[in-house]
């Protein structure tokens, strides 16, 4: 439990900490965690505004987390609520006002908003005190809602949020909102690049790349924990990987519509042209300015390599498009990278991308059934995919399924 001085010290460094996170999803996780730590809150949620609705985006709950097996995470349903005065979060978003409620089960019936007991009844939790803070941008527009729940004293007893907590969280919200607006701009830029690719390749949607990125981060995190990497390194890498994974196929902007939108199987010559999207994607990031450029180039170039060496583009100088001399095969083509010659990010995104492709409808196929998909992934261990990553995939499959539900395709 932080002292008042520790809270002030932490708040002073919060802006720097959040400024180092570029991906929106990673940022939201961190904002919620730090907000809960400020007030020693047991649980919390973040809602992001989209139009006239709030999308339930992230939740954390220490009490429920402790009931799970070691290393497991909460799996929660995503939903949205209207921005109006009927719900606590909706009221805060509609009015722009914070709400500090001592006990949500004792709300006066004359209030315009009410508390839904559905979550508590479903999971066996008891929500009591709630502090709801609107996250506003520089134009005073509400971008989202931060909600922290059940602050605890040093003995673990639930207490109400103090006036000091509320004041501190208003300062916190200002800092968090600045970081949130920047991260949303970064996400919007990435999605614009993806929409360019979508104009050429209909399957390259925002939902697809978010699923691939989310699964890639989940697999990486478990890989890193097995190696006991430090929290700072894991967090920094997750941030970079998630954005890079979203742009894995951006090189398709340079591929002909006749190939990308062909409803039938590609000819051998057409397939060779299609392969060039890996090289074109890597070229977009060749003037490296940051760790993100480095990671995005690696992912674009290597996410179609195979563990057994039968992938592409292999050992090629992506700047010239020519095979690297030491790795030219008798047929004049570059040898494929194999095993751990393939960069880790490429191995991870390869698995996440294939899983999503098999799970999704395409102009040339219907989605495969779940059992067939999992059999195919299992068979690919040691041939198409890194066997350890396949093992991690299956160990985290319920989380991966939740990621897919969260970013399901929307009607066009």
Kindly summarize this structure in a few lines.
The chain has 412 residues and is of the alpha+beta class. Helix content is 50%, strand content 11%. It has helices at 4-19, 24-39, 62-66, 88-95, 118-123, 163-200, 206-226, 231-246, 257-260, 268-284, 291-302, 344-359, 370-379, 387-395, 397-406; strands spanning 41-50, 53-61, 80-82, 99-101, 130-136, 142-151, 316-317, 322-323.
Radius of gyration: 23 Å
- Biggest beta-sheet profile: 6 strands, antiparallel
Count of separate DSSP helical elements: 15
Class based on secondary structure composition and strand pairing = alpha+beta
CATH homologous superfamily descriptor of the largest domain: Hypothetical protein af1432
Mean pLDDT over the full residue set: 91
CATH architecture of the largest domain: Orthogonal Bundle
Which oligomeric form is depicted? single chain
Total domain count = 2
Topology as a string of helices (H) and strands (E) = HHEEHEHEHEEHHHHHHEEHHHH
Q: How do the strands line up in the largest sheet?
A: 3-2-1-6-5-4
Structure notes:
This protein is α+β, with helices and mostly antiparallel strands. The chain has two domains: 4-184, GAF domain (Beta-Lactamase), CATH 3.30.450.40; 201-406, Hypothetical protein af1432 (Orthogonal Bundle). It contains 15 helices and eight strands. It has helices at residues 4-19, 24-39, 62-66, 88-95, 118-123, 163-200, 206-226, 231-246, 257-260, 268-284, 291-302, 344-359, 370-379, 387-395, 397-406, and strands at residues 41-50, 53-61, 80-82, 99-101, 130-136, 142-151, 316-317, 322-323. The strands form two sheets. The protein has a six-stranded antiparallel sheet with strand order 3-2-1-6-5-4, with helices on both faces. The chain is elongated, with a radius of gyration of 23 Å.
